[in-house]
Every structure is written in structure tokens, then in C-alpha cells.
Amino acid sequence: MTTQTRVFSVEIIQNVVIVAPRGDASGFRYQDIHTDTNSLVDSINRLKINRMVVDFGEVEVVGSIMISSLIKLARSIANQKGTAAFCNSSENMRGVISTMNLTKLWPYFQSRDEAIAAVNGSN
Predict the structure, then answer these.
(1) Is the pTM here over 0.85, yes or no?
(2) What pLDDT sits at residue 95?
(3) CATH of the domain at 113
């Protein structure tokens, strides 16, 4: 299953929800980011999804508003005793997530396949 929101591309592969930002917050209205994030959190909770991979392959870098949305999504996974991971980022984006110490909470993998295998293996 693949779907597009205004802000994210969303797929489910091997029981893992893959969330890919479609751009940075500057390309969207704040209300769209807020609405799409809350809608995804609701779907994650309703479907009891407890594994997520954030794929940064569609963006060079995202700022704090988008990072906050992704953290909210990852926390919804953690609240269901699940696990999340990041993958496929540019060097700049990797620096952002490392600087924010997000890789201490959720691991980073070079490829989507590695991230999917890791989150599937941890449950």
C-alpha cells in the first residue's frame, strides 16, 4: 500500500510503515504539516502499527518543524512498544539528525532495506 499526503509519502512494506517527507516545511503550510502528521499518528494508533522507517531519500535536508513532526510519529510508534529507524539521508540530513542526537533514540541505516530488516528484527 502506497499513499501520498500533502507532506509525506507513506507505504507499508513487510508490516513496517515507511514515511518519507516530500519536502521541507518551507514548501508547505504549517496547518498541512500539522494535519498530515496528526492523521498519520491516528492511523498508526488505529492500525496498531509498531514499526516505522523514516526515509529521507526525497529531501536534501529538513528543518525543525518537519523534524518535530517526524519525532511525533516515532513517539507514537514507541508508545506502542515498537521501534523506528531513519534511513537514506543526504550527508547534510545525516548531520542534522546526528547533531540533534536523534540517532541515540532511533538508529540510522544507509538503505531502506537495512532499516526495514532492523525494525522487523527487533520485534
Answers:
(1) yes
(2) 92
(3) 3.30.750.24
